[in-house]
Each structure stands twice: as C-alpha cells, then as structure tokens.
Specification:
The complex is a heterodimer of chains A (957) and B (327).
Chain A (H helix, E strand, L loop, with lengths): L18 E6 L2 E6 L4 H7 L25 E2 L18 E3 L3 H15 L16 H9 L17 E2 L2 E2 L13 E3 L9 H10 L4 E4 L6 E4 L15 H5 L5 E3 H6 L4 E6 L8 E7 L2 E7 L12 H5 L14 E2 L8 E2 L2 H19 L4 E5 L5 H15 L4 E3 L6 H10 L17 E5 L3 H4 L1 H12 L3 E5 L5 H4 L5 E4 L6 H14 L5 H7 L2 H12 L5 H8 L3 H13 L3 E5 L1 H4 L4 H14 L9 E4 L6 H6 L6 E2 L3 E2 L3 H11 L11 H10 L4 E5 L3 H4 L3 H10 L2 E6 L11 E4 L8 E4 L4 E5 L11 H11 L9 H11 L8 H7 L1 E3 L43 E6 L24 E4 L1 H6 L7 E6 L3 E8 L7 E5 L27 E7 L5 H13 L10
Parallel strand pairs in A: 1-4, 16-17, 16-25, 18-19, 18-21, 19-20, 21-22, 25-26, 26-27, 31-35, 32-34
Antiparallel strand pairs in A: 1-2, 3-4, 5-6, 7-10, 8-9, 11-12, 12-13, 14-15, 14-27, 23-24, 28-29, 29-30, 31-36, 32-35, 33-34, 33-36
Helix pairs in contact in A: 8-26, 9-26, 9-27, 10-20, 14-17, 14-18, 14-20, 17-18, 23-25
Chain B lengths: L1 H4 L1 H15 L3 E7 L3 H16 L15 E7 L8 H8 L28 H13 L1 H5 L2 E2 L2 E2 L1 E8 L5 E6 L4 H8 L9 E6 L6 E3 L9 H6 L8 E6 L4 H15 L5 H4 L1 H13 L4 H18 L3 H5 L1 H10 L8 H7 L1
The chains are: A alpha/beta (957), B alpha/beta (327).
Bound molecules: iron/sulfur cluster (SF4) (4 copies) and FE2/S2 (inorganic) cluster.
Chain lengths: 957, 327
C-alpha cells in the first residue's frame, strides 16, 4: 500500500461541452472550453510549476511561476488564468521561462526559513518541490534584509515576525513560513463559504489574518480544514502531522458522523492515523470536509473506550471484565431464559444508524431469524421515519430524490427545519457556493439559523412558530394554486389528476391562505407569498429539509405537503430540483434500507407479504414470523408492563436520544437483560447487564449509505482495538444463542443483501471498488446506480397528492408553560456527543445552552450566562441561558449534546401519528432563574457514577 | 483639471459611451486627494440630472444612464483597472488576473467599460468634429492630443496640451525653458514615477507611444520630471524600487518581495558592496519583475531602474581611480 496521490490539476474543471484543441509542447490536446492552459497541460501530463493555483479554487494568478509562452502573443501569460483557445501553440518550458521562474523562486526563498529538515511539511511541501522543479541553486539576496522569518533581525526585534498561532486544537498557523499565495483565504471563501480569513497589510507586509488579526480559535473560523488542505507549505499544518510525521500509506474510507457521507483518505503511518484528508473523488463532498470528519476522530483512541467485554447480574453491581466467550454465553443464556419465561416476543433489538449496512442487516437478521420475532427498530425512528412514510406514499420510495451535485444546478433552494451549516456542513458549503453564484434561498425555521446569516447570502426567512409546518406548507400551496402557478402539464402527465384536483380545491380554501394562517404560524403573509412565487417560478426549485420537519406530531404530513409542492410546481425528476431529506446520522438511510423497522424486511418490503418473506426464509433457512414487531416506544411500554424483558442495543444511546428520559429509565430498569454494544459506557449502559465493546469505523470493513442514497465503502485501516469488528460480535452473540451465521467478510453479507433486495441487486464490493460509490436503485436497469430519481415517472406510477390538514399538536402552551422549546444541534458536536465530547471539539461547545429572546429573558429576570430551570410537563433540567434574538419571542432553543443537560428529560412522548417519530421539536416549557443543577440531574449523576464502576481484576485469575 | 474645470465634458463622454454599449450605470472613481474634483463632479452630475441629461429618458429619449462619484482611499495601485474595480466593490484594492477582461466580467461581474478621463473627454470632440479632425493631430499610431505636465527642476512648469509628435527636447528646452536652477539638464523622467529616465542624448525622441517604446521608455500619463546634473541616479533607482514597495498591493511575488529586495540590493550597491554581482542581480530582478509581475506597477518599475543603469552607469560603478585607491 502506498500514499494515494491526487494530482492537483491547478484549476477547477470546466463544465462546458464544447471542446477546444490546442498544441502544448508539441502535443495536441483537446479540453472543454473554459479550461485553463495549466489544466490542459496537466491533463496531458505536462506539469507546469505552480504555487498559488489548486483545483479546489478558482485561479488567482499571484505566484507567477506558471508563466508560459504562446506563439504569436507577446509576454509571458500565467497559464492558470489564461483559458485555452483553438489553435494556440503553447510552450511551457523555454530559456526565458526558466530564468523567470528561477527569479521568482529566488525571491520566495529569500523570505523563507531554511529549516526544511526539521519542518513538519518536509516531504509534502510544494515550495520545496518548486525550488527543485525550477533548479534553484542560490539565493543571492542574502538573509539580512527585511523578512518575516526571524524573531530578531540584526540583533533588533523584527516587527514583521509573528509567533505561531496554536490556538486551534487541530492545526497550527506559522506565519514565518507563509508565502502569501492566498490559497487558504480563497479556500475559506470559495470552498467553505465562511470568509474567516483575509490578507492584512499590503505589499511586503501582506500576511494571512483570521478576521481582524484575531487568533484562529477566536475568529469566525469553523475549523473545516479547507485552508490547511489548500496550504502548499507548512504554514497551516495539522498538529498530528507535526507530532507524528508524514504518512506513508493511505486508504479511502467514509466519515462516520453525518448523513453527508464525506469520503476521506485515512493517511497512515503503520497502524497510526496521521490525518484524515477529504478525498476529491468523493462524490458527496468533492474534496471538502467539516471539523468532525476531518479532525474529530481522536475518540477512537480515547482512554474511556472500553475494549473488554463486561457483564453483571444486576445494574447495581460493578462491571466484571470477562472473555468474549463468557460474555456471549452469559448474554445468550439470559436472553433465551427470558424467552422461556415470558415468551418468544419478550426480547428484541435496536439497530444503529451509526453502524454499517452489513452490521445492521445482521442485527435484524439475528432478531427475525434468531430471536424468532420482529422486535427490531432503529434510532432512525427518532428522526426520519416520517420521511420514509411520506415519500413512499407520494412518490413511491423512501429516500431523497437527488444527488448532492444537483445543488449546482438549483436556482431556488428551500431549506425547511434544517440547519445544514451545523448539521450537514459540507452540504451547506456546497449550497452556499451555489447561492453566491446567484441562486435564491428561502429558509423556513423558527430560528434565524447560520444559513440565514451566512456571508454574501441573502435569504428570505419565514420564522414560523414551532409546530406549524403543515400550515405554512399549505399556505405556500394556496398561493401557488390560487395565483395560477401550478405546472399543469407536469401534473397532468405525471400525477393522478383527480387527486390533484381534490388537493388543489383543499389548499385553495380561504382558511388556508397566508393571511388566514398567519395568526397560527406567525409568518408575514407578504413574505410567504413572495416565497411561494419564487419557488414556483424562479427556475429549478429544490427543497431540503431536516429534523425540524420530521420530529413533529405532524412530521409525516409535512413531508407529504413538501412532496405536494414539488409535484405541483414540476420540481421533480431532473438535476437541480427535488425533495431531499438531510439525514442526521451517517447511515440513517442505510439502516432504514436494511430492514430495521419492525414491519419491513430489507428494501422496505412488508413482513406480511408471503412472497417476499418466503424468499428470505429460503435463504435464511428458518420460518419467519409474519407479524410486525414492536416499535421502540412500544418496547418501552411493554417493558414497564413487564412483558418485554431483554434488549440488544447496537451502537445507539437510546437513553439520551429518545424522548422523555424518565420513561426510558423506567423501562430499562425493568428489563432483565440489556445488552449494550458500543465504544463507550454510554448512558444506556448504566442500565445494562452485558457490555460488548464495539469497533470504530476505522477498524472495520463495510458500507454506509448517505442521504443521497449513495453506498460508499468504509475500510478497515487499523486492527479492531477490542479484538472484533461489530459484525463479528453480532455473529458471536447469534452463535451463542444457537443461530449460526457464516460470513468471512462483510462483502459476503453485501452479496446476500444484493440477492434479497431488488434495489441493491447490482451492488457488490467489486462494483464499489470500480466506481467508488453507487446510488441505489442499482440493478439491471441502472447498473451504475441512480443519481436522480423519478426521471421518467414516479416509482409508484402516478405521483400522489395527499390532502394535508393542519392539526395543532397536543403540546400547547398555556399559562404554566408559556414558551415553546425546540431543539437542534451545532457544528462541532455530533448527535448525543458520545464521540465529539471525547475530542478536542469541546473547545467550541463545552455545554448546552438555552437560547432565549431578550424580551422573554428580561421578563424572567434572566441575564446572559445565568443558570435557568427549564420545566415541561414531563420533567425539568437546568442549563445556562444565552440571550439572543436569533429566536423569536415565545420560542426557546437548545442543543442536546451533553448528558448533563438531559434536554430530553423535558421533551414529551407525543409523536408523529403515522410513525411514532417523537415530537422533539415542540415542547411547551417554562423558564425560570435557578442556582444550579436540578435534583433530577444530581440523582442521575450519582446513579451514573455508581453504575460505571468496573471491578478490579481479581489477582487469583 | 478637466473634472474641476469642465466636468460636463466627462459626463457627456461617459454618457455617449454608455449609450453605445447599452450601459445604464457609470462610476467615477476619484482619489480622496482631489476634493475639488469630487465636489465639481458631484455638482455637475446633480445639475445634469436636473436638466434631464442624466437619469431616465435622457434628453427625452428612451435612454437611461446614471452616474455616481466614488471616492477611493488613495492607493496608487487602485489606478490599475482591475484593482479599481475591486475597490469599487468595497474590497481590498488588489489586482485581478486577466482574463476575464473587465469588458466581459467587470464590476460586480457585469461587463464593464473602463477608461481614464482623457479618453472619455475626447469623445465629444470626436463625435462633434469627426474622427478625421481628431486624427489629424498627432503622428504614427498616436493620434490626437495629450496633456503633458512639465515638472521637477524646470523653469516654466505646468500643464500643456499638444498634439503627439513634438520631441522631448522641444518640450524640455523650448517650452519648459531648461532647468530652474540654470544648471544643465542631465536626466528627464517621462511617464510618471514608473517612467524611464532619458539622458540628453535621447532628446530627439518624438512624443509618440511607439517611439518611446522603441527606446525602452513610455509615455504613461504624460508627466515629465526634469533633473539637473546634481542628481544621483542611484538614489533615483532606489526611489523607484521604494515607490513600488510602498504602493505594491502585494498580490504577486515579483512585486511584493522583489521591490523590497530591489531597494536592499541597490542600497548594497550604494554602500559599494560586491557591486558587479549586485548590479547583475538588480538586472535579473528587473527582468523577473518586468515579465513576471501581474500588473503595470511591478511590471514598469524596472523602466526607471534599468534606464538609470543603462544611461547613467557611471553613477553605479565606482570610478576607476577610486577603485584603484581602494585596492
Ligand atoms: S479552517 Fe475552514 S473556516 Fe477555518 S479558516 Fe480554514 S477554511 Fe476558514
Ligand atoms: S497560509 Fe499557506 S495557503 Fe495561506 S497564504 Fe500562507 S502559504 Fe498560502
Ligand atoms: S460530519 Fe458530515 S459533513 Fe462533516 S466530514 Fe463527516 S460526513 Fe462530512
Ligand atoms: S505588480 Fe504589484 S501592484 Fe501589481 S499585482 Fe503584483 S503586487 Fe499587486
Ligand atoms: S499558479 Fe499561476 S500564477 Fe500562481
């Protein structure tokens, strides 16, 4: 294995389809119009020296190394900024050019330290490479002149010198090595869209500066790493590279954090990860990353990670470390015992959206075939089950319609109940790039999110009251229908016309108008009308939505309302349009696809369907139960009732992520055997009897499926620290329970999935190796996968319009609970924070805070930073307040990354009518000043400490 | 001076240009050092609007054109057309690489016509009197007239407008009347701070773009600065590099680092350190800057330096006698 070298072609790819032919160094080259001479030469295999150009950002033309000569033209134009023209005859290496390049390099090196041997970038420095490429042998200017290199010059303090900035936990900025190529500045603007960097000073004084000469940590920087990746020198370098040294081999894998599914090169030295570098061929991320995937992988080596299996009789006991075999047989005996005592259906399992497709598949197989019931559910229940239901009903598939590339062709983007800048950062960057090119943005969210406030983006913001999504969507439809903006040709051709007419008549009712619904929704009718017109008539309209849509009592209804809008305006079935859920966790899509729901076998096929079930029975060689099993909330209810006693939880912290924490605690405490399979002693493990250590994404092979249905490989780069990959653990547990599953490698599991699931029929590891990734459906009809769905018609046949009546949630504010709480997440932390809290990312988000409007805060005598009590019908917690007008009066907002906060202690167990997806996004609450943690928090903390004890190993053994 | 004295000429020229290309918005970028010009232009624009010569339906036609004066903070490099555009857009005044040319992708990404006052002010005359009348002035490919500023050590300084073609000698000796100090003229810098120094031997050069270019000089904005025989050309060469270092936008390497190194190296020559090697280094540096720089600031700085080296080399290499004495 060696380091994967990605050739930097210098300038971005041109999308033109017109080809231009020219001659470069005597070679005929044909490239798309708009390509730079530099890229054309590089594609033809002729490397032109360069320092300021990189194919991630537009050409800039500042270093002047890439000069070329063109026959018939005077001067020496820069090849990075000069586009190709038909018939040009270009020379990239002449005596004149050689002299010029040497002259430029001599200048560079006259203001650069000569400590290459001890420099962190030694071996990976473009400045070094270029000095070699142009044959620089001498720097005649000497080193006594003005410079940025030495702290002292001629025994005087050198005012131009700046010390290293080590404030960012993951990378350093050493100004003395900076060649002022601006690649970092441009990467921050063009790739990331944050505009945190600038060049301060002019002329010789020019220096890279975060914000107004702030530190990186103190600036707007979100630590995405784009600048570090763009930097050709050691100026911006990963601390891990400085510590460890340059990597020697690399493996392409997929980020295990969010549903964007960024591809990375894990750059290794032996079995040590040196750094994770976003992979340019990754079709989801196109070479970009966010702070989580790029830097926050340190949790895989965290000291709190549990590497040995542990068991205990009672949750009051300390843990006892045992061998794998003992743990498996202990667990198997308990589970089988429960089934004997309480019946076959008294146990079940929960699959994880964090684990691979193969692992999820195995867990549901173990439950259906090994446990003999269908009590399998997934944490996607708590986020995106309404997506599955809503889109399957209207379009016929439970997935987003587009690939992420589609955003490059979008003209109007509607973002509903999602804050991609925090939760799907790389998608947000791609979106912002498109917005800076002129696409319009409509944001429907109670809170003024980072999307609304991002630089050089103007958004139409519809700040609705939490819980009124359906009313707003219907009002948008009202405008589209009553103002005659429906794309009738599309609807007649693609959708069921009579259903459409029924729907149109419904939305056109005066009580659905923006003016009539404004009292409920709080949205200015004028703004709403403008938004509707823009979406319907502004060109390609695309809708992206997140948990703010699904985690509501009317989650499924909103998803269908969104689908209705897209169909009515013809915004479906081609690049640039569509309906796209932004999936929270990395493998939400995959875990749903893999049959994680109690009623569905892999590929969303109902368990009651005899033909489908028989197919599985034949291959698995068992009889399957045709009755759907229990959903997570039903499992908890049954546990409290005493009929559900054993649970296998893989890679999910249900205690922290499920609503109404006290109910979950009661349910878990009632069970006789809880098996937690995870990296850490998570909160659920406090109530567990068996702990099976998990393996991180760096330690196993498999696949993840991202929010665009893209199946990508996860590749093992280090040996599992716990000794077994997760799929092997599940096989071990199954075996102990008397159910044999024989696989030597996850690829064999994928082959079985492909054999049983029509949409995966064409998927194999060999194909993934060849294509990099595929988007399902992948079968004979679409052997290379399907980037955009419903192109020639909907999967279900005719698109189905569904009447979406607004029903207010049962969760209402009143005198006792006058505020509405809504929850969300922030960039540097992920989900319940089990991973990110165990990395340096804590510097950005040490605790959860409650955002409250100045007006509401003042009424309650709450000042910024005060402890406040947050109380709902379900419970109470305390946390600190942050006063901001990002939220409207009457609305409060918090994140749920830290277990101390236990935001879910106060969320209720209301849920989506169709799918039981919990209503996280609306809870009526009261806020009052407080002195510190609540009694509940203290009691919880004490229990957790007690429960995490591990008995010291006995000397006798 | 045109802006202060006859701002309507500029407005008229710009309006004609705008109608020709279909532009509806014009900007006049003035450095803050010219408050009178700003005031005069603003007053003239207001008057033109009142009179219906700017705004919508100019002079009762369907044409519309609006003008706005923007005051720049006064960086020399903002005179370069692309950094002027950056500055107008409210960013740091740094040079953009071309292509794309401003005519395709200019201010706020829109196609932009960008010219100096001189060109716009010439338009009304050309349209009124005809192209031939204008072309009758001048010589070769340099047609029309040029305002010339006579300055420095000169008896009759000031601004003169004359047709192209008069010789440098006529300008300095006949119109300017020689030096103010009465000492002999030794060097003349033509074309602003980045123009070449010409010795008396080149006084037969006609004022014409091509003729000057043929002798490694340039006409630039038409400034002429006269020096008598007391001038030290090493200082002048150093000054050119220093000017470049001070005004450099810092985008491209040859100018950003080169100008500072140029000052340092010329200072070494002034201190008589390794003169031959350092002279060769300055020449190499000038080559790098001239052909490597992104814009004319770095690209033209070599003109004063190289011309000083070429025509006044005696100032740089120590006289043989001193050399012997030193050894
Ligand atoms: S890490 Fe990202 S956000 Fe921070 S300065 Fe670099 S590019 Fe900008
Ligand atoms: S920090 Fe790196 S990328 Fe940025 S200007 Fe300096 S050398 Fe270039
Ligand atoms: S967390 Fe999401 S956006 Fe960030 S690197 Fe991972 S997949 Fe990409
Ligand atoms: S030559 Fe000087 S002023 Fe011009 S672009 Fe380069 S650094 Fe800027
Ligand atoms: S690579 Fe073209 S100027 Fe720097």
């Amino acid at each position: 294995m060696s380091l994967i070298e990605e050739v930097d072609l210098g300038t971005p790819r041109s999308k033109s389809e017109t080809m231009v032919t020219l001659t470069i160094d005597g070679k005929q080259v044909s490239v798309p119009e708009g390509t730079s001479i530099m890229r054309a030469a590089m594609e033809a295999g002729h490397q032109i020296p360069k320092l300021c150009a990189t194919d991630m950002v537009d050409a800039f033309g500042s270093c002047r190394l890439c000069l070329v000569e063109i026959e018939g033209r005077a001067g020496t134009p820069a090849s990075c900024t000069t586009p190709v023209m038909p018939g040009l005859v270009v020379h990239t290496q002449t005596e004149r050019l050689k002299t010029l390049r040497k002259g430029v390099m001599e200048l560079y090196i006259s203001d650069h330290p000569l400590d290459c041997l001890t420099c962190g970038a030694n071996g990976d420095c473009e400045l070094q490479d270029m000095a070699g490429a142009v044959g620089l042998r001498d720097v005649r200017y000497g080193y006594e002149g003005e410079n940025h290199v030495f702290a002292k010059s001629n025994s005087e303090v050198n005012a131009a010198w700046m010390p290293k900035d080590e404030s960012n936990p993951y990378f350093t900025y050493d100004p003395s090595k900076c060649i002022v190529c601006s690649r970092c500045v441009r990467a921050c603007e063009e790739v990331q869209g944050t505009f945190a960097l600038t060049i301060s000073g002019r002329g010789f004084d020019s220096r890279v500066s975060p914000g107004m000469s702030e530190s990186f940590l103190g600036s707007e920087c979100v630590s995405c790493g784009a600048c570090v990746q763009a930097c050709p020198t050691a100026t911006l370098t990963e601390k891990s590279v400085i510590e460890i040294g340059q990597p020697e081999h690399s493996v392409v894998t997929t980020c295990a954090y969010c549903g964007v599914g960024c591809a990375f090169k894990a750059e290794m030295r032996g079995e040590e990860v040196v750094r994770m570098v976003p992979y340019k061929d990754g079709k989801a991320n196109r070479g970009h990353s966010c702070v989580k995937g790029r830097f926050a992988w340190g949790y895989t080596n965290h000291k709190e990670r549990i590497l040995k299996p542990m068991i205990r009789e009672r949750i009051e006991d300390p843990w006892r470390e045992v061998s794998w075999d003992e743990a498996f047989s202990f667990a198997a005996t308990k589970m089988r015992g429960i089934q004997k005592k309480y019946g076959r259906d008294a146990i079940g399992g929960i699959t994880s959206s964090r684990c691979t497709n193969e692992e999820t598949y195995l867990v549901q197989k173990l439950i259906r075939a090994g446990f003999g019931n269908n009590n399998v559910d997934t944490c996607a229940r708590v986020c995106h089950s309404p997506t599955g239901y809503g889109l399957a009903t209207t379009f016929g598939t439970s997935a987003g319609t587009q690939d992420f590339d589609s955003v490059e062709e979008t003209d109007v983007v509607v973002v509903i109940g999602a804050n991609p800048a925090s939760a799907h950062p790389v998608f947000a960057s791609r979106l912002k790039k498109r917005l800076r090119q002129g696409a319009k943005l409509i944001v429907i969210d109670p809170r003024r999110t980072e999307m609304v406030e991002s630089p050089h983006v103007k958004a139409l913001h519809l700040p609705l009251m939490p819980g009124t999504n359906v009313a707003v969507m219907t009002a948008l439809a009202h405008v589209i229908v009553t103002e005659g903006l429906v794309n009738e040709a599309f609807v007649r051709e693609r959708c069921d016309w009579s259903e459409f007419e029924e729907w149109a008549a419904f939305v056109a009712q005066p009580n659905n108008s923006p003016e009539a619904t404004a009292i409920l929704t709080g949205v200015d009718p004028k703004v709403l009308r403008e938004a509707a017109r823009t979406y319907a008539t502004g060109g390609n309209g695309a809708i992206y939505y997140g948990l703010g849509v699904t985690e509501h009592s009317q989650g499924s209804t909103t998803v269908m309302a969104i689908a209705n809008l897209a169909m009515a305006t013809g915004n479906i079935g081609r690049p640039g349009v569509g309906v796209n859920p932004l999936r929270g966790q990395n493998n939400v899509q995959g875990s749903c696809d893999m049959g994680s729901f109690p009623h569905e076998l892999p590929g969303y096929r109902h368990i009651a369907g005899d033909a489908v079930r028989e197919q599985f029975e034949a291959l698995w060689n068992v009889k399957l139960n045709p009755e759907p099993g229990l959903r997570i909330p039903n499992m908890f209810d049954a546990a409290v009732e005493g009929t559900f006693m054993g649970l296998y939880v893989q890679g999910e912290d249900i205690l922290q992520s499920d609503p109404n924490t006290s109910h979950v605690v009661a349910a878990l405490s009632a069970m006789e055997c809880v098996i937690v399979h995870d990296l850490f002693l998570n909160e659920t493990a406090n109530y567990a009897h068996v702990f099976l250590p998990g393996s991180s994404f760096l330690e196993k092979d498999g696949t993840f499926t991202n929010a665009e249905r893209r199946i990508q490989r996860v590749r093992k780069v280090v040996t599992p620290k716990n000794g077994m990959a997760d799929w092997e653990v599940t096989i071990g547990l199954a075996k102990a329970m008397g159910f044999e599953m024989n696989y030597n490698h996850p690829s064999e599991i994928m082959d079985e999935i492909a054999a049983l699931t029509p949409t995966f029929a064409g998927v194999s590891y060999a194909k993934l190796e060849e294509l990099g990734s595929v988007q399902w459906p992948c079968n004979e009809k679409a052997p290379e996968g399907t980037p955009v769905m419903h192109i020639d018609g909907f999967v279900r046949g005719k698109g189905k319009f569904v009447v979406t009546e607004y029903v207010a949630t049962d969760e209402r504010t009143g005198p006792r609970y006058p505020l509405l709480l809504t929850t969300g997440r922030i960039l540097s932390q992920y989900n319940v924070g089990a991973q990110t809290r165990r990395t340096e990312n804590v510097v950005w988000h040490a605790e959860d805070r409650l955002e409250i409007h100045p007006h509401d805060a003042e009424q309650r005598g709450v000042r910024d930073g005060d402890w406040v009590r947050l109380k709902s019908r379900a419970g109470e917690t305390t946390l600190r307040a942050e006063i901001t007008d990002r939220v409207a009066p009457g609305v409060v907002y918090t994140t749920f990354h830290h277990p101390d906060t236990q935001a879910n202690v106060i969320t209720t167990d209301y849920s989506d009518w169709a799918t039981n997806c919990p209503e996280y996004k609306v809870t009526a609450v009261q806020v009052s000043p407080s002195n510190g943690p609540s009694d509940w928090q203290k009691a919880y903390d004490a229990q957790a400490r007690h429960s995490r004890r591990i008995a010291p190993a006995e000397a006798a053994e | 001076m045109i802006m202060e004295g006859d701002p309507f000429l500029v407005i008229e020229g710009m309006t004609i240009a705008a109608i020709t290309v279909g532009a509806t918005k014009g900007y006049i970028y003035v450095r803050s050092e010219y408050p009178h010009a700003v005031e005069a232009m603003n007053a003239a624009i207001a008057a033109a609007k009142r009179g219906g010569y700017l705004g919508t339906n100019i002079g009762g036609t369907t044409q519309s054109f609006d003008l706005e004066v923007r005051v720049g903070a006064g960086a020399y490099v903002c005179g370069e057309e692309t950094s002027l555009l950056e500055s107008l857009e409210g960013r740091r005044g740094i040079v953009r690489a071309k292509p794309p040319l401003p005519a395709h992708h200019g201010l706020f990404g829109k196609p932009t016509v960008i010219n100096n006052v001189l060109s716009f002010a010439a338009i009304p005359f050309i349209l009124a009197e005809g192209a031939k009348a204008y072309a009758d002035f001048g010589m070769g490919r340099s047609r029309g007239t040029m305002p010339i500023q006579l300055a420095g050590n000169i008896r009759y300084g000031g601004l003169f407008e004359t047709a192209f073609g008069v010789t440098l000698g006529e300008l300095v000796d006949d119109i300017g009347g020689g030096t103010f100090t009465g000492r002999p003229v030794r060097a003349v810098q033509v074309g602003g701070p980045l123009g070449a120094y010409f010795p008396r031997a080149l006084f037969d050069t006609p004022f014409d773009y091509e003729a000057f270019a043929a002798r490694d000089g340039l006409i630039g904005h038409g400034g002429i600065v006269v020096f008598d025989d007391s001038v030290d050309m090493r200082k002048q060469a150093r000054f050119a590099m220093e000017f470049c270092a001070v005004e450099s936008c810092g985008k491209c390497t040859p100018c950003r680092i080169g100008s500072t190194r140029g000052v340092e190296t010329i200072e070494k020559i002034m201190r008589r350190e390794r003169v031959t090697e350092n002279l060769a280094l300055v020449e190499d540096l000038c080559n790098t800057m001239k052909f490597g720089s992104l814009c004319a600031l770095g690209g033209f700085t070599p003109y004063p330096v190289l011309s000083a080296l070429k025509h006044f080399r005696e100032d740089f290499v120590p006289a043989p006698t001193t050399l012997q004495a030193a050894e």
